[in-house]
Every structure is written in C-alpha cells, then in structure tokens.
Amino acid sequence: MAGRADVAELAAGVAAGDRRALARAITLVESGRADHRADALALLARLRAPGLPSAGRAALRIGLSGTPGVGKSTFIEAFGLMLTAAGLRVAVLAVDPSSARSGGSILGDKTRMERLSRDPMAFIRPSPSQAQMGGVARRSREAVALCEAAGFDVVLIETVGVGQSETVVAELCDIFVLLLAPAGGDELQGVKRGIMEMADLILVNKADGALKPAAMRTMADYAGALGLLRRRAQDPAGYPKALCVSATTGEGLAGAWTDMQTLAGWRRENGHWTARRAGQARHWFEEEVRQGLLSVLGQASARARLDGLGAAVEDGRMTPEAAAAEMLDALRRVDASRPA
Amino acid sequence: MAGRADVAELAAGVAAGDRRALARAITLVESGRADHRADALALLARLRAPGLPSAGRAALRIGLSGTPGVGKSTFIEAFGLMLTAAGLRVAVLAVDPSSARSGGSILGDKTRMERLSRDPMAFIRPSPSQAQMGGVARRSREAVALCEAAGFDVVLIETVGVGQSETVVAELCDIFVLLLAPAGGDELQGVKRGIMEMADLILVNKADGALKPAAMRTMADYAGALGLLRRRAQDPAGYPKALCVSATTGEGLAGAWTDMQTLAGWRRENGHWTARRAGQARHWFEEEVRQGLLSVLGQASARARLDGLGAAVEDGRMTPEAAAAEMLDALRRVDASRPA
Questions:
Q1: What is the pLDDT of residues A20-49, one digit of tens each?
Q2: Cβ contact (<8 Å) for A315 and B288?
Q3: A64 and A48 in one domain?
Q4: Can you name one GO molecular function term for this protein (chains A, B) (predicted)?
Q5: A113: phi then psi, degrees, rounded to nearest 5
Q6: Could you count the other beta carbons within 10 Å of the beta carbon of residue B107?
Q7: Domain co-membership, B235 together with B150
Q8: Most A CBs within 10 Å: which of B37, B286, B326, B334, as the mutation test of the A interface?
Q9: Are residues A118 and A208 in the same domain?
C-alpha cells in the first residue's frame, strides 16, 4: 500500500463485495509494519463512514469451537454450502494462535474445505501464521469487520480450542457454537467448563452410521449438563441447547441453522444483540488500551533491559520486585524524555 | 505499621517462626495501602537479607488444585496432620480469586480444617477477600515467601480451579497435585487439558467404601491419559502419576507423600528444581512490570476518562481503535508532565 488513493480504492472494492479486495484488506490489517497499520486504520474508518454501503452492514457472526478430530472442516464445508445454496454469502475466518506451532494450516485450510473454497458465494481465510495473542485478537476483530463491510451475511469464526482463543472468539461473535464428537465415555474431550458456559448451541457431530447411538448419548449427557447451568438473560426458553448433526449425511444441519436464527432473532428483538455488541466494543477498547500500554516492552531497548534484569532475577542477584521497580523506573524516564 | 522499627520486629518474629507475626506479615502484604506496600517490600527484603535465619530457607511448595466437591479440605486436613505428626511444619494458603463472589471462605477455611487449624505445627491462612487477579498473584507469591521465611517445611497452595488461578499456582509451586473425585463416566469433572499437563501427581480421592471401584477406574483412566502426554524433561520415569487416596481412611496418603518426595528429590539432583524456581522468578518479574505499566489505569482520573470513552464506544459514537488512541495519548501527556 502506498497512500490514501490506494486505501480509497481498496475500500471501494471491499464495499462492493470483491473477494480479492477483501483478501488484500485482511492482509493489510494482519501486517505488523507501522505504515501498513496507518493504512489499515484509515481503511477501517473509511468503511465505517456514512456514504459507502458498507457502513450499516451487520453479518451474523457465528463462533465455532471444537478440538481437532471433531470434524470441524467437514462441518464448515457442509454447513457453508447449505447456506450459500440458500443464497447467503458466507465468510470463514480462523482464530488460531497455535497455527505457527502446529503448522500446516496455511496450506491446509483451503484444501480441507475444497468445495466451499471454490464457491463464489464463499470466502475462506486461512489462519495467519503469527502467534502473538494480543495481535491475534486485533487481527481477527478487524478481519471480521472487513467481512461484514464486504456484505457477507454470515461470518464463521473458527477456533481450535486452545488457550485463550475461545475467549477471543466469544468476544467477537453473536452466537457461540461448540462442536463435539460422540464420546466413548472418556473425560478427555477437552471441554472446559468455561467453554460450556459460553456455548449457545452444542452440536454433536458424526451422528451417522455406527456412531449414531454414541452421538445420541453424548447429546443427552450435554443436554443434561446444560440444564444444570444457570439460565442466562440473553436466552429464550430452551437455550442453550444440544443437538446431533452429521456433516457427512447433512442430517441436523438445517435444524441447527434454524436454532441459530431463532436465537439471533430473539436476541435482536429483546435488545440483547445490541447490548452484546456494545459490551464487545467496550471490551476491545479496553484491550487496545492495555496492549498499547504494554507495547513499550516490545521496543528493542526495553527488551534488552528486560533481558538483562531478567537474567539477574533468574540467578538470584535481584528479587523480582526490585528488578521490576528498576525496569518501570527506566521506562518512565524514557517516556518523560520524549516530546509531549 | 508505623515505621522501620516495626518492620524489623515483624521480620524477627517471622524468622523465629512465630505464627502470629506471620499472620500479621501476610495481612501487611495483602494490604492495598501505599504506606503498607512500602513496609511490605522492606519486610520481604529484610527476610531475604543474609543474617536472619530466614534467608536461605526453602520449603517444599505443593500446589493443590481440585474443583469443589472432590474433598479438598478433608484431604488437606488428613495430609497436613500426617505431615505434622512426622515432625514437619505445614502452612496452607488459598489462591482463590473468586472467593469474594462465592463468599464464605473467609469464615469457612478455618472451620473446615478444624483439627489442622488447632495444630501448633500448622498454619492456615484463609483466602483474601479481594478478587483482582494481578493482586491475587502478587499477594499469594509474597505469602508463600513469608511462610518459607518462617521456616515451614511444606507450603500447600490450594486453588479451587477457576479461571487463571491454576496458572498462578503452577508458577508458585515446586510440585503440582490435582485432586479428583471418582467419576461416574461423566465428562464434567471440569478437568481442563492444560491442568492435566501441569499436574505432577493426580490423586483420586474418596477411594473407600462403595466408591472404591469407581475411584480405581478413574485412576486407570487418568493413568492412561497421562501416558498419552509427552514425557517432560523435569520428570523421572513413571511420572506424572495417578494414585488413589482416601482422606477419610488415610489410605494412600503416605504413598502420595513418598511420591512427592521422590519427585522433589529427583528434580533437586538433576537441576530442574533450581531451573524451575529461576523460571518462576523471571515470570513474576515480567508480570510485575506488566502490572506496573497497567497500574496507571487504576488512578481515578484515568478511570473516569476510560469510562467516558468506554461509553462513547458502547453507543457507537467512537470506534474502539479511535477511543483507545485518544486514551493512550491522554495517559502519555499526563506521564510526560510528571517530574522525571
């Protein structure tokens, strides 16, 4: 990106729903370069400004969490194709802070959802390869905003369910869906209680063939567990809910979509939709402030000092408190010497 | 606390192992008042200084995690009494950021471990009532250091297993123990994968009477699951390990203690103990720096501005990014106007 003219052109492309412009825009917000950052902020502001059709658009943002092996890609492909067949435009984004570690997702995302990726009504964005959490949150949030501005009706935000990524997704989506596989009575499906409490819908996938009875039992177990959770003000009666689906046969997918729409409709009518988005905006504002305050630690001089003091702490020459006091004092002096 | 003389007196009391002095010292580090803070830092520095017997002391710090209902208090009482009977001095601390919400733990801790709390070889500190996470971590860390300085042989650091408290405990302890109840095949015992990976020892409690077969099955399940985890460099062969215990009958408690000692001994001999403590000190140093940078947000003027901008973000008058930029700019100007 070179300047304002390009930003205007890119904004027009995104607002017109052009997928190549959208892909370039997401690459821009994902960039770590300072000049790219300024362009990214200008682009986002432009897309929100009255005038362009992108300003008032609001997609249904669906967060989708599930550990590897539950059939997430197959589910997204089948579910996405069902929506595009119904005339809806679908964007798929991945929030995956561990992708750099687990490897392969950059090449993998598109091939694992082959039919959906060729669908002109769909847009699939592979996980970014960088892995810093604050950065992941910001990039994901801005990518969602770009998809929304590009007129997508549904934005699926996918996470692999490690570390803090669920919390990021929960603060980005309107509806949070947890995908599970039929369990063989083992405790290790990796469902954290906190994720259960975030879930609006629990879908037990692979409810077909020999696994169907196990899927039904797992669904009943989770329906029971959901019944033990406190009813939330943002839910109509009967929600959160556990359902069986099969991404392979397609059974249950339409029902799951109906439930998502029911929930979204109810929340819109009862003010919870607006309240949730307002709360999310507040959350991201405060998070940006925190990240901004901590960003001084990323500067080379600060990092060098942090490493020096850290070594002294590690080998017992300084206490953590004394070293921290010295570090903070040094940062304050640097800050004060800057032109105001 | 009034001045240096009192700090010296308190340090002498703590170093002599006086439990009332220790209780007062912990109250001091838990205080939010600035003058108390200065005294607390002076106290900690004094206890670490060469001269007092407290300087070189190192307790075995055992982290204990378990969701409500697994019988944690009964376990701590039985385990603690076994250790004091063997001539060891035992301190019990709770890390519980949710205690203010769940209530009752301030009165509850002592009554739920009645016999241990009357034991002159034991010291039980109820959870602090404040619930700010950064504060919880610092207070807990300093309370552990005080117990160590007071010559306790074992410090049990207990957590209820919500939110980030396990991470805090893992960064405080030498050995991490996960307490479980016998499971009835349900997935909801609330064991997060991350906690499994932190555990050095998994103890299935209530392995007595009618629950014994279920406890054995649960132990076998977790032993199998632990076998799937990658062997860590800091573990001798056979660890991490799952065992059955009964806090009621006492069965298995001596074996669990033997395992903890084996593990601690092996780590000491192979340098992992020192490396772990060094890594923890480094972690706390960086955490103090982060908390220090974020502490400007706690000032009344900053809070007021944060609330004003936050409201503008919530009702859509400002974007999160623009509001954050304004907030950071304001904080920078205040900082620059301060005398360096």
A1: 999 999 999 988 788 898 899 899 989 988
A2: no
A3: no
A4: GTP binding
A5: -125, 65
A6: 10
A7: yes
A8: B286
A9: yes
